[in-house]
Design goal:
The protein has 286 residues and is an alpha/beta fold. It has a single domain, classed as Rossmann fold (3-Layer(aba) Sandwich), CATH 3.40.50.150. The chain is built from 11 helices and 9 strands. The chain has a 9-stranded mixed sheet. The longest helix has 18 residues. The protein is globular and about 60 Å long. It starts with a strand and ends in a 5-residue tail after the last strand. About 4% of the residues have low confidence. The structure holds S-adenosylmethionine (SAM).
Length: 286
């Protein structure tokens, strides 16, 4: 079977090896295999988000920051009459999407998500675990809302685990020498505003919105699995810029600290992970 179409930003046939253009983003170079190690845990919030999307006869759906496309296909299965676009700037992640069998009305676009202009107004925009790599959410929300059709729905899940020991340790380690000078200017995930802020902002933009947070308590085999988890996401910007030997030293310093911070019990280790969600609906035309 043919793989699904991948479009470059300039239309069909755009080269995958060409860098995705667009405004600056903190998103690092991705390693799909590393990210997929915790596929089940990472997919659960997507399904929890989907469960809160109001009934809509969506005909135009976008998955922004779609990664390797498995969850984009779930959107396509749920709205089979819709044209569905998965948008991502990472050639590595999108390569996974090409390895899956093609489906009619499902395509993938390599683009920075703010630079992508849909062919028509969208009935549904989903973004799962991607917008924390994009700065300036006040501006971003305004942009996303402008892409919606009347009555269109925006559903977002953003990891928000900066207060957890894992993420604090990573931040502290990066801010201390010898790493601070080697990692100067490297951007990690962006700070996320409160759920109340998103609710206010979306209401201000004229949408009917709900927002909530969930802490998922993951049982992992050992503290080292927490580092493996981080290697799929928050640790990527540092690993991407450090020379190989430095990256190894940085990772082992992180492993040591995380092993001290998380108690290994008889059933492994519990890794709490907080995530912020919002679902908002644009007004129907008067
Ligand atoms: C953690 S992965 C999530 C992938 C997918 N949504 C999922 O839930 O499995 C984040 C994805 O967002 C993409 N991303 C981050 N910032 C982006 C941006 N500014 N424009 C386009 N894609 C972006 C990354 O390339 C990456 O594939």
């Amino acid at each position: 079977m043919r793989p699904p179409r991948i479009r470059g930003r300039l239309g069909l046939g755009g080269s995958l090896s060409a860098p995705a253009q667009g405004p600056p983003s903190a998103s690092p170079r991705w390693d799909p295999a590393q990210y997929a190690q915790f596929r089940r845990e990472r997919a659960q919030p997507f399904y929890d988000l989907l469960a809160r999307i109001p009934d809509c006869d969506a005909r135009a759906v976008a998955d922004l920051g779609c990664g390797s496309g498995e969850l984009t296909r779930e959107l396509h299965a749920r709205w089979p009459k819709a044209e569905v676009w998965g948008v991502d700037q990472s050639a590595e992640m999108l390569a996974g999407a090409t390895s899956l069998p093609a489906r009619a009305r499902l395509s993938f676009v390599r683009s920075e998500l703010r630079a992508w202009q849909p062919e028509r107004p969208l009935d549904l925009i989903i973004s799962n675990a991607a917008l924390h790599w994009v700065p300036d959410h006040a501006q971003l929300l305004g942009h996303l809302v402008r892409l919606l059709a009347p009555g269109g729905v925006l559903g977002v899940q953003i990891p928000n685990n900066r207060e957890e020991a894992s993420h604090r340790i990573l931040e502290e380690l990066s801010a201390a020498e010898p790493w601070a000078s080697r990692l100067r200017g490297v951007q990690g995930p962006q700070p996320i505003a409160s759920a109340a802020w998103y609710l206010e902002r979306l209401s201000h933009l004229g949408l009917e919105a709900q927002a909530w947070e969930t802490i998922y308590y993951h049982r992992l085999p050992a503290p080292s699995a927490i580092v493996d988890w981080l290697k799929g996401t928050a640790l990527r910007p540092a690993l991407a810029v450090l020379p190989e030997a430095d990256a190894r030293d940085f990772e082992s310093a992180l492993r040591e600290r995380i092993a001290h911070a998380y108690a290994q019990g008889p059933h492994g280790v519990i890794f709490p992970f907080r995530r912020l969600f919002f679902v908002a609906r644009a007004p129907f035309a008067a």
